[in-house]
Design brief:
The chain is an alpha+beta fold and about 475 residues long. Helix content is about 20%, strand content about 30%.
Length: about 475
């Protein structure tokens, strides 16, 4: 038998030798870029099955009186039921109300599944309801509980997330769980677009992971989604007929109020909760499909009604994916600034919640010494860009390389906003006080904020210097 080679190392030299070996073998210690999903190639984890999944409740125009539910199942049932009951302390929920779903087929890389949607109405305000949904072959979901919105005057707490988009199961999950830990009283979760990345041949896996990541929120909160550019795809790409087309998943995944701008009803909508009116716009359609003017005119009417209509609201919050003021270099959403921005400024909207640019930045409106609107861009997911020099001069605070969530509470005539990192640390905080007629004021809360975060990496693991992380 051949003799074994033995290297004798003196104790003092051991650490020096280990360091030298690591330096000599950089490839052994190099970090690999994590794929976008955790699903191994060829795995059918997210294929449709008999059991109901991807269950999500979204707001009706009046969430005090109803909500809307969407879910998926495999083949074998044409019109499944939703069962609803007032939640009580006994496991005996009594005889539930039964509502029949409308069902459509959705074909994906996993084959054909069934998407079901139900509009639940006739409910009582500020009441806890239990509901469950039916799948195929005798399957039912677990019971979930959801509280309807209260009347104006009651406190409202909600969560706002920038783009999740990439590595949802791996890295977005922890943001959503931390947000729930800090906001146990939240009634609503608003997602500012680019929920998934798409266009990579595994869109349904990405949606499956997004629903897994959001499941804790979707079990107890209303979810209000915004379309981003990644919810669209390019049809006839690189040809004269190239155009943006809304992805097949969107209208199946979410049951929305259907009260949106003309021609953009599938992706724009509004709803009222407590003292606030929420309005959701579609920036991609505005920029790429010529609907900026139509959306601006519709927004003007919805905001005017919120101030002086039959059900006036003290606060207005607008969500759109692409920012009015972009904190990322070489981005300028000209059509939004031409058509939508004047409407936001005219009505002195309180908060404009945005995504798209994968950094954090906040700035006030165009009128000096006017507290509102406050324009915010944030990011929840793994993809992280870099700030432009202009953003560093015109926005404060700003951040790179940071996963964030936002908690907003409206109570006693004050709107309190907090942005926190994925570890729960306070990054930004302010309050909006006063009434719209006499003018809002911004009160900055600087105590407890951590210092500004900037990207310390020269490039991503893939070597991209224009991003901080992928």
């Amino acid at each position: 038998m051949a003799a074994k080679s033995v290297i004798a190392v003196r104790p003092r030299a051991a650490s020096t030798l280990v360091l030298a070996l690591l330096l000599a073998l950089p490839s052994a210690a190099a970090r690999e870029h994590e794929p976008n999903t955790l699903v191994p190639a060829g795995d059918a984890r997210y294929a449709p099955a008999a059991h109901p999944d991807r269950i999500v409740a979204s707001p009706a125009a009046d969430p005090a009186r109803g909500f809307q539910v969407s879910w998926r199942s495999g083949q074998g049932i044409d019109a499944p039921l939703l069962e609803l009951a007032v939640a009580g302390d006994s496991p005996d929920l009594g005889e539930p109300r039964r509502l029949q779903a409308r069902t459509r087929t959705l074909a994906t890389e996993h084959g054909e599944g069934l998407q079901h949607q139900v509009a639940v109405d006739g409910l009582e305000p500020d009441t806890l309801y239990a509901f469950r949904v039916q799948g195929a072959n005798g399957w039912w979901s677990p019971w979930r509980q959801l509280r309807t919105a209260a009347a104006p005057g009651a406190p409202l707490e909600f969560l706002y997330f920038g783009d999740t988009q990439n590595k949802n199961a791996s890295l977005s999950t922890r943001v959503l769980l931390e947000a729930l830990r800090h906001a146990p009283d939240a009634r609503l979760a608003l997602f500012a677009g680019d929920l998934v990345s798409g266009g990579d041949g595994e869109d349904d896996n990405e949606w499956g992971e997004w629903f897994d990541a959001t499941a804790p929120l979707a079990s107890t909160l209303l979810v209000a989604p915004v379309t981003g550019n990644h919810e669209y795809f390019e049809e006839f790409e690189d040809t004269p007929q190239e155009r943006r087309v809304l992805g097949a998943h969107w209208p199946h995944m979410f049951a929305l109020p259907g009260n949106g701008a003309p021609g953009v009803e599938a992706t724009t909508y509004w709803f009222d909760m407590h003292d606030a009116r929420f309005v959701v716009l579609d920036g991609t359609s505005a920029l790429d499909l010529g609907t900026a003017q139509a959306q601006a005119a519709w927004l003007d009417g919805v905001l005017r009604d919120a101030a002086s209509g039959e059900r006036p609201r003290a606060w207005t919050i607008v969500a759109i994916h692409q920012p009015m003021f972009s904190p990322r270099q070489d981005r300028e959403n000209v059509l939004l600034r031409e058509h939508v921005l004047p409407v936001l400024e005219k009505h002195r909207v309180d908060l404009v919640l945005q995504g798209h640019d994968h950094v954090y930045g906040r700035r006030g409106g165009l009128v000096e010494r006017q507290g509102t609107p406050q324009y915010v861009v944030s990011v929840a997911g793994a993809k992280q860009y870099r700030l432009s020099p202009e953003a560093r001069e015109t926005m404060a605070p700003v951040a790179e390389d940071t996963q964030l969530y936002q908690r907003v509470r409206i109570e006693n005539g004050e709107l309190r906003y907090e942005a926190r990192t994925v570890t729960g640390r306070l990054y930004d905080a302010f309050s909006i006080t006063g009434d719209r007629a006499s003018g809002r004021s911004i009160v900055e809360h600087v105590e407890g904020r951590i210092p500004q975060r900037d990207c310390e990496r020269a490039a991503t693991l893939k070597g991209r210097a224009d991003r901080c992380w992928e």
